[in-house]
Structure formats: structure tokens, C-alpha cells
Amino acid sequence: MLLSMLDELEIAQNWMLLLGCQSVSERIATFLLILRHRSAKFQPDSVECLGNSVTIPISRRDMAAYLGTTVESISRSIQEMARHRVLSIINPQQFRILDERRLVELSGRDDTEMKLSVPVERTLRTT
After folding, report:
1. Which of 12, 35, 66, 113 sees the fewest Cβ atoms within 10 Å?
2. How many CB atoms lie within 10 A of CB 8?
3. CB under 8 Å to 97, separation ≥6 — which residues?
4. What distance in Å separates the CA atoms of residue 105 and residue 103, rounded to the nearest whole number?
5. Where are the domains of the chain?
6. Do the Cβ atoms of 57 and 42 come closer than 8 Å?
7. Which among 18, 29, 22 has a CA at the least distance from the CA of 84?
8. What's residue 60's pLDDT?
9. pTM for the predicted model, two decimal places
10. Could you give the 3-state DSSP secondary structure of residue 125?
11. What tens digit of pLDDT does each residue of 42-79 get?
């Protein structure tokens, strides 16, 4: 239970950094990468089938509230990423990441930091 709490605290710390120190585009890029890594971790078969697709399980309004911005800012940033061929818009809730390296650059973090944003699976051995 302690390891689980430590993972949650680490995620909360990363989230505070995200909301306090990043621009809207950086927050959206980070959010998409976190969703992609979580999908890959919890549903490896479905991510493999969908390639680099990311499904956002919440509405744009909820996403804006979650990321501390407005719906309009999210739409502008996503459209800009689509124009620059970083991602393609499949529908309002689903995107295909075309250039993951560029998305990581837009997030202002490196790929190893993004992987650390998702709790590492740990097992406790009882003997």
C-alpha cells in the first residue's frame, strides 16, 4: 500500500508541475502522451491494433477544466498540432499521433519523464 501511495504522490507532483509551469500546448501534449502511455500499459493489445491512436475519455469542456484552460485554447492547440502533422484528428475524442518525437518535444519533457508519469508496476514478495 505504501508503494502505491508513493506512486500516487509522484503523479500528483508531476501534475502540479504540469499545471503550474507549462503552456497550454505543453499541457495538451503532455496529457496526450500520458494517455497514450497509460493505454499502452493497461491495454497493450488494443494500443497495438490502433497504432498510435489516443482516445480522450472526457469531453473538451472537462479536458479544459482538468488542464486549467479553456475549450477554445484546447481546440486551437490541437488544430495547430494537426496543421504541423504532429497528430491527426480522427474525431473530437480520438487522435492519431503522427510524430511522437515532436509531441514529446512540444510537451517540454523527455520520453523517460513521460514514462515516469505512469506508476511503475511493482510487486511485493511475501516470504
Report:
1. 12
2. 11
3. 32, 36, 52, 53, 54, 86, 87, 103
4. 5
5. 2-116
6. no
7. 29
8. 92
9. 0.69
10. coil
11. 554 444 444 588 999 899 999 999 888 999 999 999 99
